[in-house]
Amino acid sequence: MKVTYYGHATILLETEKAKLLFDPFITPNELAKGIDIDTIKPDYILLTHGHVDHVADLFTIQTNSNATVICIAEIQGWLNNNDVEKVHGMNIGGSFNFDFGHVKMVNAIHSSSMPDGTYGGNPAGYVIYADGKKIYIAGDTALTYDMKLLEDEKLDWAFLPIGDNYTMGVDDAVKAAFFINCVNIIGVHFDTFPPIKLDHEAAKAKFANVGLNFILPEIGQTIDL
């Protein structure tokens, strides 16, 4: 299993059976100008919520790849109304067996609306069970005690937002790592906009000081999980 980081909160998780793209926001991101979205051909696109900085390239990539979109039920309705039929709707606490593995939708504390102002349902995170691994994608979220519900999952990796202002920052992400009982953390949702500019060395030090394996990925970097 491997993951490629495309900037902001956009990651491509490659399992043995499928490619899973999360929250496609690439072309509007000046930091990701070197990424050609026409080369990204996922089998599934998973959305944590509807904000434009998580769905900007959704239609283009879905059209190019014919990917199935996995999302909250309200976003499913919005997509169907916008001529996207390959959608699997879910809701918080629900899970489903796909051809690549098992997906559970979990709680996130944030807000959600679509780029046109349509109500986007509740924000969410995901736990992916595939290739013998358990991967947590938190989505945009505050620190929440609901993360404690993942403590016994024995997660292999977790993707946590760390940019602050719109989501939890580094200090709360460190707490989140202990809530979910996961030592391998990859930071996302940082540097894209002025309010979420990150002090990289300070962030790395805070995770290292408490014994956590923390990766701050470069855009375009691929990491073996």
Describe the structure.
There is one protein chain. The mean pLDDT is 98. This protein has five helices and 14 strands. By secondary structure, the chain is an alpha/beta fold. The termini are close together. The longest helix has 10 residues, at 170-179.
- Within the largest sheet, what's the order of strands? 6-5-4-3-2-1-14
Structural class: alpha/beta
Name the overall outline: globular
Tell me how many strands there are: 14
Strand content: 25-35%
Distance between the termini: 6 Å
Helix content: 10-25%
**What's the gyration radius in Å?**
16 Å
Largest sheet: 7 strands, mixed
Oligomer: single chain
Write the element-wise H/E pattern from the N-terminal end onward.
EEEEHHEHEEEEEEHEHEE
Q: Please, how many helices?
A: 5
Q: How confident overall, as mean pLDDT?
A: 98
What are the segments in which pLDDT stays under 50 over at least 5 consecutive residues?
none
